[in-house]
Design goal:
This protein has a four-stranded antiparallel sheet with strand order 1-2-3-4, covered by helices on one side. The protein is an alpha+beta fold. The protein is 44% helix and 25% strand. The N and C termini lie far apart (48 Å). The longest helix has 26 residues.
């Protein structure tokens, strides 16, 4: 998939940079690639240019889809992938980092990092299950002010 220019390119500017996303679609068969239900290989060739420095970085990311390549327009494929990852970032990573300080973890020991990630995941799940309509930031403040709430939550049954 490298080499030739992609048949569709989307360009956007913002945050002090210019982003280009080229889309390449290839039909695949599940048996040929040993991946059940795969119909389309999607390649996004991204380039990001910093307006201030002029420095450009490039990368290619690959995705498999169970949809045929003609089920969506080119722009819809790109927006589908961007929307998925934006949702992951907003719904999951931001909570884990901004509320639970995940990126501030300084340990490089896999067991410590893994255990802290499990604890954070359990907290996110407990909060979502028991307080679906309350912002996690509000819950964190409430639990910090009244630690006995944490014991009640841990002992509760779903």
């Amino acid at each position: 998939m490298r080499g030739a220019a992609p048949p569709f390119v989307q360009v956007s500017a913002g945050h002090g940079r210019i982003d280009e996303r080229g889309l390449v679609l290839r039909e695949v068969t599940p048996m040929a690639i040993d991946f059940p239900f795969a119909r389309t290989l999607v390649a996004i060739q991204s380039g990001r240019t910093d307006k201030r420095t002029g420095r450009t970085t490039r990368e290619t990311r690959y995705y498999l889809s169970s949809q045929d390549q003609d089920e969506r327009r080119h722009e819809e494929w790109i927006n589908l992938i961007r929307g998925h990852w934006a949702g992951v970032e907003n719904r999951n990573h931001w909570r884990r980092d901004a509320l639970w300080g995940e990126d501030r973890t300084r340990s490089r020991k896999p067991n410590i990092v893994g255990n802290l990630a499990l604890i954070r995941s359990a907290l996110v799940r407990l909060f979502n299950d028991h307080y679906p309509d309350t912002a996690h930031s509000e819950l964190r403040e409430a639990f910090a002010a009244n630690p006995s709430l944490a014991w009640k939550l841990v002992r509760s049954r779903s």
